[in-house]
Amino acid sequence: MKEDEIEQFMSLRYLTSIQIHCKEIIRLGNIKDGGWEVCNDIRYRPRHPCLVYSFGKNILYRINWDWGFDEDVVKTYDCEVHSFDPSMKYSEKRPNIYFHRIGLFNKRNFYDFKRKWNMTTLDNIRATLGHSARKIDILKIDIEWDEWIVLPNIIKSGVLRYVTQILLELHSPGNLKRMKTVRSLYNEGFRIFWYHRNHFCRRNKAYIEYSICFEVCFVRIQFV
Fold first, then answer.
1. C-alpha–C-alpha distance, residues 86 and 119, integer Å
2. What is the number of structural domains in the chain?
3. 8-29, pLDDT tens digit by residue?
4. DSSP character for 61?
5. Are 23 and 42 in contact (CB under 8 A)?
6. 214 and 14 in contact (C-beta within 8 Å)?
7. Is residue 147 part of a domain?
């Protein structure tokens, strides 16, 4: 095997290895694409008053205004949900769901002139919303490849010390640099309790067809 094929193989083995057993896993949102798995074990489940951040980007990947996950979080746990997407306008009110037309980036108060998006860091969002003293029960990030830009900043900022569960879509994770970023989540105390290959994005290479998108769910087993 070539070096890049070895890296791809090692990445797939890591992302498809369950690192902690969650006794009760529930799916919130669309049963097909758009829904996410949450660990409902007593130690990890959100409790009122709970806080959830839901980051998306690009209306096409928001499943045409599908708010199923955000709404199910409210129905199941009565959480305060903050939804973020710099690529779409939104005015309709939903109970306990607050929409922000802003996206995640690795710099504070950054304006993307090409896409006309307002972007900033997770720690800045948390401070701006007055949540610095609150725990984030669920942090969902599905931002179409930009996760590799923002994850190192999120890890370095120390915000993850206040996060219980991370629901993360990873695109094309098969190289050593990106897997080191994922490994950093392990060092922060997070363990994979669920993974799902997103078959909506696939790639053919040499003799194998494989998914290049993984929905990976983590729980924090070490708390400050």
1. 7
2. 1
3. 777 888 888 999 999 999 999 9
4. G
5. no
6. no
7. yes
